[in-house]
Design a protein that fits this description.
α2 runs antiparallel to α3. It contains eleven helices and no strands. The chain folds into two domains: about 60 residues, Homeodomain-like (Arc Repressor Mutant, subunit A); about 160 residues, Tetracycline Repressor, domain 2. Helices cover about 75% and strands about 0% of the residues. It is an all-alpha fold.
Length: about 230
């Protein structure tokens, strides 16, 4: 081993001992980029190790194997998205305003999380097999349903939400619009141009999506953004 390589290895060993949590976070950050770009089969552990402050051996030490690392990456992106939703305090808002804020926040959160979108697309190719192995993600995902259920219950109690409104269906609708906006950006742009993804048009789209959701839920809702 030459001197440069030996010095690099020594620095890595020191970082492992000083702050193993920081090392794991560094591995997960790089792995998230690699799996999002190349998928589970296309991502290369050697390339991930090369871009981190650790080694292939330590990646396996922390995460078991490539699939174990991929599962942790999935949990990480779901956790990040749900955390941004959990920080929203809508309990003090009227039901209509609370739902509006949740729709807008979900649209923005997806737009700002392209790695999450790509990894979900990849996991769908795998039929959700690796996501089903996680004990964490179902608990994480429950939080947004709980929040929507609370808003829906208040809206129905006040007589402003339709009686048939269901929180899970509502989450599906909100996520559908928000997800498509990112997942199909490349193909939509190739077909119709990218103008709709410029910031002014994105702001309009977010308002349109919010209006459609509220019109489906709120009794007598009259959107004015279409006039």
């Amino acid at each position: 081993m030459d001197g440069g390589a030996e010095n690099t290895d020594n620095k890595r060993r020191t970082s492992w001992k000083k702050d193993p949590e920081a090392v794991k976070e560094n591995i997960l950050a790089i792995a998230t980029e690699e799996f999002a770009a190349h998928g589970l089969s296309g991502a290369n552990i050697n390339e991930i190790a090369r871009k981190t402050s650790t080694s292939k051996r330590m990646i396996y030490y922390y995460f078991g194997d490539k699939e174990g690392l991929y599962c942790k990456v999935l949990e990480g992106v779901y956790s990040s998205l749900r955390r941004s939703e959990d920080l929203l305090d809508v309990g003090g808002l009227e039901p209509e305003q609370a739902l509006r804020r949740l729709v807008e926040a979900t649209f923005d959160a997806h737009a700002n999380a392209p790695h999450f979108i790509r990894l979900v697309m990849i996991e769908n190719i795998h039929n959700g097999d690796y996501l089903r192995k996680s004990e964490i993600v179902p608990k994480l995902n429950r939080s947004i349903i709980d929040k929507l259920e609370e808003v829906c219950a208040r809206g129905k109690a006040k007589g402003v939400f339709r009686k048939g409104v269901d929180a899970l269906e509502l989450h599906w609708l909100i996520s559908s619009f928000s997800f498509y906006n990112v997942s199909n950006r490349a193909t939509f742009s190739a077909s119709f141009g990218a103008s709709i993804f410029a910031q002014p048009r994105q702001a309009i789209l977010k308002q349109r999506v919010t209006d459609m959701i509220l019109a489906a839920v709120v009794i007598g809702y009259q959107p004015d953004s279409w006039s």
